[in-house]
Amino acid sequence: MTYQRERQYIFQLLNAVLSSNDVSCETTGLDWNVIYKLCKYHKIDNMIAYKVCSEPFALIIPEDIVSKFRLSLQKAKVREAVQHIEYEQLQQLFEENKIKNIPLKGSILKYYYPSPDMRFMMDLDILCQEQDIEEAGTLLKKLGFQLKYPGEHHDIYIKPPYLVIELHKTCCAEDEELYEYFSTIWDRSQKREEKNFIYDMTWDDFYIFLIGHMAKHFKYGGIGIRSLLDLTVFKQKLEKNCNRSYIENVLKNAGLLKIEEKMNDLAKKCLYTNENLQKDTELINFIWESGIKGTSGNKIGFLIGNQGGKNRKILKGQVKTLTSYIFLDRNHMQAMYPYVKKCPFLLPIAWLHRGVKKLIFEPQRIFKTIQRIFDRKNVARTSKAQKDAGL
Predict the structure, then answer these.
(1) CA atoms within 13 A on the CB side of 28
(2) Cα(265)–Cα(254) distance, integer angstroms
(3) pLDDT, mean of each 10-residue run, the chain (391 residues)
(4) What is the 3-state secondary structure (H, E, C) of the chain?
(5) Residue 260: is it exposed, middle or buried by C-beta count within 10 angstroms (0-12/13-18/19+)?
(6) Can you give the pTM of this predicted structure?
(7) CA 356: distance to chain centroid?
């Protein structure tokens, strides 16, 4: 079952929240358990709660569902408050220690939603200059954060229960389409008023980065409804500050203009016009099924399709994907096993270490992954979604 009515009604509720519009209270035949689960899966339950926890909805929706949405809203407000306080403390430390940084994505965009807690954030993303990364990490540790996952592109710090900070060394990884463009981001960014070390991207660059990040997630597992919401909010509140011809030129050169146009068109249709959706049904279903950051099954399907070359030879892609799964690349292995960075010749030992560990502790996961690699239907499905999205 695809629960088309429930999905369509969620879009209507989102429209009402973003635009302060009315929405029909005729909910006969809707499965509110499904609506809640879909919203939870896409991390928009706290946003929908603004409507369903107020009258007249709170009087006509099952009480247990209202309670779940209300709890989601309360948790989101607490999460936002904690994230805000920690972020302010970190920025104060950055100012005192002269660490230049650029806040990325949601930490900026959330303030353009009707309320910042509506834009659920799993982590805070901050770009620092590479020479400052080590000192910035030391400052994070002073605030109680622990380095959980070191990486070539960014380091991930955690502080339970709510806080994850991605400390970026570059905006994009080397294999991303916009890597070269964003390698000069510091030259184009501007110092924030009344601050000495907080910088902001131009709105053109902010939007280009938003599209690049969305495309990356689409190719590595899929995107969810929140990506459509981000595009909608940007269009409503910030597009007037942008140079459209400049943006189109950059995205076209990076091969991302088609996905940008497609996703904006899809967001408009789903959230506002609700028309001409029939030809996009499969793509919309794919987005609903992908959740907030995609699925491992989607990721495998995309990998096989892409590794199969332009002619999409599935067997070739399957063999390459299986090989890359068993023999993970050096960057990932260094992050998992630091001794590989110190002694590169120990990479084969690390592969063996990882393989034995997975066989002992995750045998079912290994079997499921291999099963997905040889699932031709999934490869065809993800390849079609990628094509439909304009990638």
Answers:
(1) 1
(2) 20
(3) 86 92 82 96 96 89 95 95 92 95 94 94 91 95 91 88 90 89 95 93 97 91 93 96 97 96 93 72 90 82 69 72 83 84 89 89 83 78 84 79
(4) CCCHHHHHHHHHHHHHHHHCCCCCCCCCCCCHHHHHHHHHHCCCHHHHHHHHCCCCHHHHCCHHHHHHHHHHHHHHHHHHHHHHHHHHHHHHHHHHCCCCEEECCHHHHHHHCCCHHHCCCCCEEEEECHHHHHHHHHHHHHCCCEEEECCCCEEEEEECCCEEEEEECCCCCCCCCCHHHHCCHHHHCEECCCCCCEEECCHHHHHHHHHHHHHHHHHCCCCCHHHHHHHHHHHHHCHHHCCHHHHHHHHHHHCCHHHHHHHHHHHHHHHHHCCCCHHHHHHHHHHHHHCCCCCHHHHHHHHHHHHCCCCCCHHHHHHHHHHHHHCCCHHHHHHHCCHHHHCHHHHHHHHHHHHHHHHHHCHHHHHHHHHHHCCHHHHHHHHHHHHHCCC
(5) buried
(6) 0.87
(7) 31
Token pair for 249: 């030129």
Residue 76 in tokens:
């989101």
